[in-house]
Amino acid sequence: MNRPPQKTILFILDDFHIGGLASFVNTYVRYFNDKGYRTIVIGEEGESLHHGEYFIGSEVVSLPQSPFAARHTNLFTYLLYRGHFFWKFIHAYNIIRKKEKIYVIHFNLTWGPIALLLFAPSVYNYPRVITFYGDFALEHKSRMGVVHGLGELRLIVKTAGLALAQEMSLVLSSRVIVFSEYAKKLVMQRFRISQKKIAVIAGSINFHEYQLPTSAPPFIADHKHIHLLNISRFENRKGHDILLQAFDILLKNKLPVRLTICGPMTGEIYHVLKIYERLKLRDSVSFLHAVTTQEKAFLMRKADIFVMPSKELETFGLTIVEAFACGTPVIGTPVGAIPEILSLVDKRLIARSTKPEHLAASIARYIRLDNKEKDRIKKKCQRVALQYFDSALVLKRLESLYESISHQRGVGAFIRKQ
Length: 418
Fold this sequence. Notes:
Elements: E1 7-15, H1 20-34, E2 38-44, E3 59-63, H2 75-99, E4 101-108, H3 111-119, E5 128-131, H4 136-141, H5 150-171, E6 175-178, H6 181-191, E7 198-200, E8 226-231, H7 240-252, E9 257-262, H8 269-278, E10 285-288, H9 293-302, E11 305-308, H10 318-325, E12 330-332, H11 338-342, H12 356-367, H13 371-389, H14 391-405, H15 412-415
Parallel strand pairs: 1-2, 1-4, 2-3, 4-5, 5-6, 6-7, 8-9, 8-11, 9-10, 11-12
Helix pairs in contact: 1-14, 2-3, 3-5, 7-8, 7-12, 10-13
């Protein structure tokens, strides 16, 4: 092992909910555990801790949810909730720093980092890295039109608070990690972070986990239908409405397609179900709840096409890379970082726009390719996943970044880089 195990990397999450963030941090800690580092993950309790696949080999500090979590319906109870949230993160951090030799603090999301950056001055004794997962204020703003009345007013206030908190967490960190060139431009434009402070390190996966085990039973192929798959949270910006409308166009054009949509049954699922009902798609569209990595890989290998219909603000797209690793081609909209990834395989996988008819046309064009061309694309998907996004290669850059900032201390370290 190259590094002494006494060096501790402290990962700060807001919570342990299942999603892209938990997957990214899980990939981080597994890589560094294998390299001989000690990793500690702090976050508010969530469902990802009930799955044995997350954070294996790390010390997990799961903080109980605040008693005010379900009741912050006004400003006073929200302040109580947020104050308690800050206190428990600071308390957990202070216990850890007294007994561990912290090498780097790696922030994820916003409120956990803000608690330490504003109210735990000793945090500036350590190098601080933050991963930029997306512009949370803009993501909340994209829900405008889906929520109404008092809910919309709360959304406006929350959006303003998120924008300020996220900018502070980015500015007060030593370095900012982004997953794509699109995300880099977004951070520079929205938060005025200098280019020198930003490191583009793509999201990554353990490529071999997505390969079919030799002991696995063969799939029972369904030659009657072409199976489409989407796995994402139910948020307006994720474009489920575009996907359902595009799918309806495919059906009207007599293409034998079936669609599976998988994601946590929260957020704006009811808005999606209304479109599903209006278009009368119950015989050809199925919904699944959140799945494990193994279940996800099974669905991706079984699918003929993975569809990424995002409308805006897609800073990476981990599911694209996961589908590639399974040898499943991805059709996506020309939004955010999606074209950066898809163009590594074939630019024909990118729809002309976010209009349903253009997404449907791209899916239909792929379906009509001959088998030889489809096989070529599938094989290239796997080569791209291994060459550009395998964690064994990608996270060497993160390890080098940690090393490069390991001697930076204090607030002045980030000011000199601006």
